[in-house]
Amino acid sequence: MENLLLVIVAGVCLVAAGVFARSARHRLRFLRRVEHTHAGVGYDEEGQDAYEAAYTLAQSSFRRDAHAALLYAALTVVAALMAAVESRAATAILVLVVVPALFPLWWGRRSVAEARLTQERFEMERRAEETLSQGDLAPLAWADRLAPDDLPDFAGYEMGRVYQAGEGVMAGDFFDVFRVGPTRVAAVIGDVAGRGIESSITAFQAKYLLRVFLRQFRDPAQALEELNAQMSSIERAEEFISVVIVVFDTEAQTMRYASAGHPAAWLWHEREVQPLRATGALLMLDPDSSFFSREIPLDTGDMVLMYTDGLAEVRYGDAQFGEDRIAMHLRRDPTVSPDVLCKSLLEAARDFADGTISDDVAILAVRRA
Q1: Helices in 275-365 by DSSP H: which ranges?
Q2: Which domains does the chain have, with CATH numbers?
Q3: Given 77, 232, 253, 291, which residue has the most CB atoms within 10 angstroms?
Q4: Rounded to whole angstroms, what are the CA distances from 24 to 18, 67, 114?
Q5: What DSSP letter does each residue of 17-79 carry, written as one string?
Q6: Which residues contact 47 (CB under 8 A, 6 or more apart)?
């Protein structure tokens, strides 16, 4: 009778050991998955804490189930040996082991399912994290197309730019600098009314259509007329574009500009700051709008400062930063490098607004060296 009881105890312990071993195997796989997924990844403080918490929990769960599996395996061996020795006292003690050993038989499958569920949840969270990461990177990649970090170098000219995204996810501001002929370089800055993906797509279309039209038409006013005709055919309600184009002729040492309803650009020329005001209406208001351009000779040291309305419309209470402050900033030190000018101008706007700028801001400066 005692031998039969010990055999039953050994059998129950063996099953319990198997259940815990299976659960421990799943948890070990999960632990290795956590290590592999996060190996070599740089985290901020919050991300590092989350990784350490996940790793600690996975390691603790594995150790617990592995310990239980080893314990019940040892009890299986002891029960089998005691069956051979035929000790009544030992039999009575070991029979008591059946009570805790029966619990894994009751919820053992649940424990395995729990281990699998933990792994599946980790995989879902990892995929969600990757998706969110891609979602965060997408607007940055898109913004880099509209407002690139690097500008091309052109002999005889110095350039600077700065861009700050506002509170929206996608920007409608854009700028561009590119060669349109052997001796001609175009600088463009523009802004699409509204926010969100639609405005950003419109800005993208306008930017790259202008590259085509400015190579096709020597006069920037003609390029604006063609762009206006093309963009007006899209029929997007309550959407319009302001843009200013400056084409520098490196051989004739002149600049020709045209502006479609854009805030006044400023030109440091003949020891004075001069406004380059709009030479036509906003784009996409009327497909038949006409534009004109102006040509101005450039001297060494002359500089053009362009920006989007997010800069002029920076507010502190009811007061605006305004175009006059922008012109004054250029007038204060016209010999500063274009890059320093753009950065200091944005900093001045931040100080004026007490550190809060809600709209997108793009600034572009070009000087004849």
Answers
A1: 309-312, 322-332, 338-352
A2: 2-137 (no CATH), 147-368 (3.60.40.10)
A3: 291
A4: 10, 9, 11
A5: HHHHHHHHHHHHHHHHHHHHHHTT----HHHHHHHHHHHHHHHHHHHHHHHHHHHHHHHHHHH
A6: none
